[in-house]
Structure formats: structure tokens, C-alpha cells
Design a protein that fits this description.
Keywords: Calcium, Cytoplasm, Hydrolase, Metal-binding. The protein is mostly beta strands. It has a single domain (2-327), classed as Neuraminidase. The protein is 0% helix and 51% strand. It has strands at 2-5, 17-19, 22-24, 27-30, 35-37, 42-45, 53-59, 64-69, 74-79, 84-89, 94-99, 106-111, 114-119, 129-136, 145-151, 157-162, 176-181, 186-193, 196-202, 207-212, 217-223, 230-238, 247-253, 259-264, 268-273, 278-284, 289-296, 302-308, 324-327. The strands form 7 sheets. A 6-stranded antiparallel beta sheet has the order 2-3-6-29-28-27, with no helix packed on it. A 4-stranded antiparallel beta sheet has the order 7-8-9-10, with no helix packed on it. A 4-stranded antiparallel beta sheet has the order 11-12-13-14, with no helix packed on it. It is globular.
Length: 341
């Protein structure tokens, strides 16, 4: 049994008990204001491993999780009700997938440095057809590629790039950017970043959260929902000051306004209050390279977590690279927003 005390250094939980597909973690969070027993939290492997699983998006209309394998050049669909997992190949490294509003078979994707609209019927191996190219970014850095991307609360596309990775895990520094598609153009919002990640919005706080992973810090911007503009950058959670091993990757936000941050190289998802900078919880994941997370399920109370199995500092054996389902957290997320073309 381990204990995690708010404002204290993270402690590593004991090894999980594995029972079939269910990976049960026994841990307790001690909070000065409340005591929460986490013995009900379950982490379940729901897909087989990928090389670089990323970009989970829950589509409420289809009750399905969409995500990508960046290195596998593929887009994926998982339906929890049936356990069906299907995928198809695209024409290059794909950073994200978001459904197009009002359709069931069209998606905006980031492929290499292009933003494309593709049509895919969701069947395993079914051909994905490029319907339209919205634009290409970072012409001055042709070895960059698009990384994380999401639709904001008004359906605008926000997406960022990542510097060239000539050696696995080593990136060209300060060559990437964050963009917003305003139709018909991509507007550069932030430049001089290395690994663009971690997009989340809080309308109540008028905040946009964003991460340049190699800063080991989470950014906050003032956010104008009417225009999509961001301003007044500040930092809300410093990994190094909080003695967190690993780097911040993708993230999501719950209805309490707290962030859930995937930790690449840290085998966990962190629950952080960005208003106070406090670490609330650490959810262990049985994969070293945890890449992103989003809430889904009929009640939006299931956290879906993607991971990678890249052999950067050693072999990453299964279940590394799998997608996991985390239940029993006692919180809910916001609906994932589709892209309004």
C-alpha cells in the first residue's frame, strides 16, 4: 500500500496485481481536505500495442474512441461496447484525428506537415481517401511534422508541430509552432517551441492550457472563446520543481477544471489543479511512455489513455504501446469537440 500526499514528492506505487485483462492498482490519496480511497480505480488494456499511440478523441455520436499511431502511419477506432478495434493506413506520420462535425466518416488529420480532410468508413483496412488539404505549415522546417491537435469549444482547429527527430527522442530545438485554422488560412499562434502538446480549454476560467514538452512545464494562456485568440502566457505546473520524472505529453481537463496530464517516461497520468499548481493525484499506467488521455464513455467518466512502445532507452515490452481504460476516478470530462469545417 502506498500513499500520495498532496504537495509532497510523488511516491511510486507498488507493482500491480494483474487479473486477466484487469490491472488493479491499490493506492490512496491523502488530501488535507478530503480522504479518497482509490482502491476502486481500475486500469484495463483495451487494445494491442502500437509503436506511438496518440491523440485519443471520444466521439459521443458513435460511442467510439478514435486515435492514431504516429509511427505506424495509421488511424484507429475502438468501440468499447463490442471491443472492436479497426484501423487503416494514411500517407505518412499522422499526429491526430478529429471527426468533422455533422459527418460520421470524415475527419481532420495532421499528416506530416499537412492538415487534411479524409474520408474513412471506420472498417478495418478500409481505404482512407483524402478529400481536401486545408494547408501546409512550417515550410521553413521541412523535417518538422504535425503533432497534437484538437478542436476548441467553438470547433476551431488548434494544432502544433514538433521539431525534426533524427535520433529517436532527440528533437530539433525551438523550430516548431502552434497554429489555429481560421479558414482558409492557418494562423501561427506560438512559435519557437520544440514539442507541441497538451491542448485543453476551460471556459469558466477563460483559459487555454498548452505544453511544449521539453520545457517540463505546463503553460496557461488567457483564452477568448469568441475569437479564439490566446494571450498572457504563464506557467502553472513545473515538473522539475515538483520532482516528477518524465516529460508532460498530451492532456485533458475534467469538469472540476483539473488537468489530467500524460507523462512520457513516467508510467503515469498526473491530476493537477492548474489554478493552484497543486498535484492532486498520480494514476499509475503499466507503460513507461504514456502519451495522452481523454474522457469518454456514455457518462464521460472513463479516462482513455494512449501509450507508446518506442525503444529509446531500452526495449518496451507489452503492454507498452497499448490503449488503456481507467475507471473509478470519481470525475467526469467534457465532451470532445468535433471540427467545424
Amino acid at each position: 500500500m502506498n500513499y500520495l500526499i498532496e504537495n509532497e514528492v510523488l511516491c511510486v506505487t507498488e507493482c500491480p496485481f494483474i487479473r486477466g485483462r484487469y490491472i488493479l492498482f491499490t493506492s490512496i490519496v491523502v488530501n488535507p481536505r478530503r480522504l479518497l480511497n482509490m482502491s476502486s480505480v481500475k486500469v484495463v488494456k483495451v487494445t494491442e500495442p502500437l509503436v506511438l499511440g496518440e491523440g485519443p478523441h471520444w466521439d459521443a455520436a458513435q460511442q467510439a474512441l478514435f486515435f492514431v499511431d504516429i509511427k505506424g502511419h495509421s488511424i484507429h477506432k475502438y468501440k468499447p461496447a463490442t471491443g472492436e478495434h479497426s484501423s487503416t493506413k494514411l500517407g505518412g506520420a499522422v499526429g491526430f484525428i478529429v471527426p468533422v462535425e455533422g459527418t460520421s466518416d470524415q475527419f481532420v488529420v495532421g499528416v506530416e506537415r499537412q492538415f487534411q480532410i479524409v474520408q474513412w468508413d471506420g472498417s478495418d483496412g478500409g481505404a482512407a481517401r483524402v478529400l481536401r488539404t486545408l494547408g501546409e505549415v512550417d515550410p521553413e522546417a521541412p523535417s518538422n511534422r504535425i503533432n497534437d491537435g484538437k478542436a476548441d469549444p467553438r470547433g476551431r482547429l488548434f494544432a502544433g508541430t514538433i521539431g525534426a527527430e533524427d535520433i529517436p527522442g532527440q528533437f530539433a530545438m525551438n523550430k516548431a509552432s502552434l497554429f489555429r485554422w481560421d479558414g482558409p488560412n492557418m494562423k501561427k499562434l506560438v512559435q519557437g517551441v520544440t514539442v507541441s502538446n497538451g491542448l485543453a480549454w476551460d471556459l469558466k476560467e477563460k483559459a487555454f492550457y498548452y505544453t511544449d514538452s521539453l520545457e517540463y512545464n505546463i503553460r496557461r494562456y488567457d483564452y477568448n472563446v469568441e475569437t479564439g485568440e490566446i494571450s498572457n502566457m504563464s506557467y502553472v505546473f513545473d515538473f522539475k520543481k515538483n520532482n516528477v520524472a518524465g516529460v508532460p505529453d498530451g492532456s485533458t481537463i475534467d469538469t472540476d477544471g483539473n488537468l489530467w496530464v500524460a507523462v512520457f517516461g513516467g508510467s503515469c497520468v498526473l491530476n493537477v489543479d492548474p489554478r493552484t499548481g497543486k498535484l492532486l493525484r498520480k494514476i499509475p499506467i503499466p507503460a513507461l511512455q504514456v502519451t495522452s488521455a481523454t474522457f469518454g464513455g456514455p457518462n464521460l467518466d472513463t479516462l482513455y489513455v494512449t501509450s507508446a512502445s518506442m525503444n529509446i532507452s531500452g526495449e518496451q515490452l507489452p503492454p507498452c504501446g497499448a490503449t488503456f481504460e481507467v475507471t473509478g476516478l470519481g470525475v467526469k470530462g467534457h465532451p470532445n469537440l468535433n471540427f467545424k469545417l
